[in-house]
Amino acid sequence: MGQIKVEKNAGGIQGLCVIEPAVHGDARGYFMETYNQRDMEENGLDMVFVQDNQSCSTKGVLRGLHFQKEFPQGKLVRVIKGSVFDVAVDLRSGSETYGKWFGIELTEENKKQFYIPEGFAHGFLVLSDVAEFCYKCTDFYHPGDEGGLAWNDPEIGITWPQLEGEYQGSASAEGYHLADGTALNLSDKDQKWAGLKDTFHF
Ligand SMILES: Cc1cn([C@H]2C[C@H](O)[C@@H](COP(=O)(O)OP(=O)(O)O[C@H]3O[C@@H](C)C(=O)[C@@H](O)[C@H]3O)O2)c(=O)[nH]c1=O
User: Which domain of life is it from (predicted)?
Assistant: First the structure.
């Protein structure tokens, strides 16, 4: 008997899956299986993961939106500390939902996992003081192969929770902050990505 509940085609976008593992609580704390190949296969998820990643970010950090072009990665993501708003954007030309986004809050408490297949841009905004983010990938990191999409492209129109600020025509973080005043914090490269019209598609 499997220990995961899988919601397929999350947000009406084919391939996106929200996975909820069974959590076994007892007087000591809890136990859960964070990945079980057989349970995944029983739900039609037969991808093979070759790399595990972990990052730590402070409140207001936004990482993304990222993808690899020649070596696209499927990603099974989760949060082990704090909370983030995690987003996938469909970049599969020919897809009925090309250019559409789906976002989900992943937290230490809800223990939800989100599977984003190849062909999507992916990113997240940190809503807690600190967030530790873990993910499995179906292909290796190829630094020269990275592509990106502007996190605030008006054509996509992602509603980032708690975020306030005016679009100034680029992915720059300038002028943006969370409702509590925390400044939006992006890497230099993530402030330079183009919007949907001018970026790569699969
Ligand atoms: C992604 C990655 C980065 N690195 C290195 C490169 C760099 O020196 C440092 C930080 O890299 P980045 O700034 O690209 O890290 P980050 O912004 O966290 O990149 C990640 O963002 C999220 C949203 C994703 O979807 C991931 O696939 C990945 O692109 O870590 C690796 O060695 N291996 C990896 O797999």
Answer: Bacteria
